[in-house]
Amino acid sequence: MKIADRKPKEKTTIYLLAKSMAIVAGVFTFLVCVLMISNHFRMAKIDPIHSPSLERMIHESEQNPHDEQLKEEIRELDLLARRAFFSSTSFNKIGVYLLLAGIALLFISLKTLATFNKKISIPEASGQMEDHSRISSRARWLVVTGGIILIGCSLTITFLSHFEITGVPLQEDQPDPVSTVNKPTRQDLEANWPALRGVDNLGVAFTDKAPTQWNGETGEGVIWKTAISKPGFSSPIIWQEKIFISGGTGKENAVFCYLSNDGTLLWETVIQGIPGSPEKAPKVTADTGYAAATMATDGNWVFSIYANGDLAALDMEGQQVWGRNFGLPKNPYGHSSSLIIYDGILIVQFDHEKAGNVYGVDVASGEIKWETKRDHGVSWASPSLVKAGEKTELILISNPWVVSYDPTDGKELWKIECLGGEVAVSAAYGDGLLYVMSEYFRLAAIDMGSHQIKWEVDVDLSGVSSPVITAHALVVGLSDGGMITRDPKTGDELWFEETDYGFYASPILVGDRVYFMDRSGVMHIFKDSKEFELIGRPELGEDVVATPVFLDGFIYIRGTKHLFKIGSDS
């Protein structure tokens, strides 16, 4: 039965119901808009990530580096700030869905009203005609008002949810490719330390020798230490006798090369002349800085990326070969996704608020060989390379997706939705299972064959430190202190060990031992076992954020102020 054929009483009921729904939907949508806008400006005013109190305390800590109570207060305040930011972000995301629901209900209600008025029979009595005229006038007013609300909501959603990366398009006027490229073999890679956490960013050292005793305060076991002139939290990489690290101050970014035998600074290159590089440095937090992303090398060149979006390639003698800028990153802490190389392609994960991409860059020329869009929001995790079968897969982690790509062309192979919150932890892999994690959400084990979650837990999760798989366990370090191991097949807890300080550096498997450096500079060395078997806890005497390097029986550690080489036991 059509609306025009219904009785007047039934028509009135439908009209009143649609009108009531339109009013409720309009008020609901308006309130959500107000709350979201209020939340946005409140967080912009407070800015918990860049709290003046926190920055003041950090400055005081730099003046009093041995004040442990102050450091603990900084960690607690920093944790509260991050949680506040995460809660605000989550509220806005939920608000978008509520807005869409309200708009949909409002549209349906207004459409029903318009249809009712269009199909209503012409009244016979003059009084009825006047009533109908008033109804039509009110309906038109509701339609106009609803349209204004719809436009306002659309602008609000766009404003709150879509942030573009500021900067300039990628520059294409790059130098000509170098004619001769010596691609490293797998043996070459395993004999060096070419990226974060070693080969493939998986935390396994291809050696079974490393010292277990040293003391940075007394100099015991320390072959050399050298001061670092620019701050940075990037981890060292090594190729043959050369150690590379990056540093930055916001005004000036640089790459440093040291000789591994005596710690001599061989060269320092300031990155400059990159097309499109922003004049003003972005705002970053003190525990991220301008050089948080670890470099990568293939033995021909070394590559570094910074918080301002600059990517630079240098030859092994320190000459800048090419550079490009990816735009000024838009995120609350600073850029920290590290670089990795696969078969002549430099992988750049550039995830930011609604404007992310992953790039495959030709190592010789800087030319973009492929580019894949990633509308996944901010991620501070780093890419990993996993060979689960015959094919090597590029694994990228964000909120909420774990995505596998073909590293040769950037084609998406599969993805699974399983994470949330702030994502900074890189993947671990072993025996067909991929392990991914985000703090305050979950740790999940994904079967690389079926791409299904085999098990998951939501307690004792890392916020920064990436896990490692050993023969017996999955090793995880907590940001606020504590180490936990789980059965890789089931997720069941094997053991938990309290620590005085939390972990930012990642654990490294060296033979049948695990080396795990906490933020105070204490290295926790324990047996790869289903029960906790401590080997030693040597101290560096300096705070550490970067993941150490294990090569040829030595350990190379970047502290907050010095680079150390630790010697083997005598």
Describe the structure.
It is a single chain. The chain is of the alpha+beta class and 570 residues long. The protein folds into two domains: 3-161; 186-566, Methylamine Dehydrogenase, Chain H (7 Propeller). It is 25% helix and 28% strand. The protein is built from five helices and 33 strands. The protein has helices at residues 8-46, 52-63, 68-119, 126-161, 186-190, and strands at 204-205, 222-227, 237-239, 242-248, 253-259, 265-270, 296-297, 301-305, 310-315, 320-325, 340-342, 345-350, 356-362, 368-374, 384-387, 392-397, 401-405, 412-417, 428-430, 433-438, 442-447, 453-457, 468-469, 474-477, 483-486, 493-497, 508-510, 513-517, 523-527, 534-536, 549-551, 554-558, 562-566. The strands form eight sheets. Strands 1-27-28-29-30 form a five-stranded mixed sheet, with no helix packed on it. A hairpin with a 4-residue loop joins β9 (310-315) and β10. It is globular and about 90 Å long.
